[in-house]
């Protein structure tokens, strides 16, 4: 794995052996191509962060800062190794908690994010349940985008509370869905 573009372009990232399935370079490149300038100055929340590849790519491309949530011990070791390699400790906070507990903690701190990555282990329904927890969590800034990754056989809805599916793509076994906040999208259409 490597950083594809930006400040850390070409830098190698350590990977976790075994249980953790990182987002491939091809899929990461496609995600960031779709997001485009929305990454600049974004406040990123990376749920099920694994090695941190998604949020580290965002930081390389100009995101302001990131909170990475990961509870798997082997993934946490590799995640911290990747942060040390890129010297990003000042722009990153790591929460070694289950995602549901991290969402509650961050909501209690009134934290808000403009870009949320959601890449749970496949086949456990975690993409849907975590996506369902986000609309009423208070974590979404008005311009927020949520990028949810799951197995192509897992169904994600077109609407989830205030979140509206903007587009989805399939890359092999991977399904990537991009969501925005419905009210904000309607206002943009009316003013545009």
Automatic annotation (TrEMBL):
<protein>
    <submittedName>
        <fullName>16S rRNA (Guanine(966)-N(2))-methyltransferase RsmD</fullName>
        <ecNumber>2.1.1.171</ecNumber>
    </submittedName>
</protein>
<keyword id="KW-0489">Methyltransferase</keyword>
<keyword id="KW-0808">Transferase</keyword>
<dbReference type="GO" id="GO:0003676">
    <property type="term" value="F:nucleic acid binding"/>
</dbReference>
<dbReference type="InterPro" id="IPR002052">
    <property type="entry name" value="DNA_methylase_N6_adenine_CS"/>
</dbReference>
<dbReference type="InterPro" id="IPR004398">
    <property type="entry name" value="RNA_MeTrfase_RsmD"/>
</dbReference>
<dbReference type="GO" id="GO:0052913">
    <property type="term" value="F:16S rRNA (guanine(966)-N(2))-methyltransferase activity"/>
</dbReference>
<dbReference type="InterPro" id="IPR029063">
    <property type="entry name" value="SAM-dependent_MTases_sf"/>
</dbReference>
<dbReference type="Pfam" id="PF03602">
    <property type="entry name" value="Cons_hypoth95"/>
</dbReference>
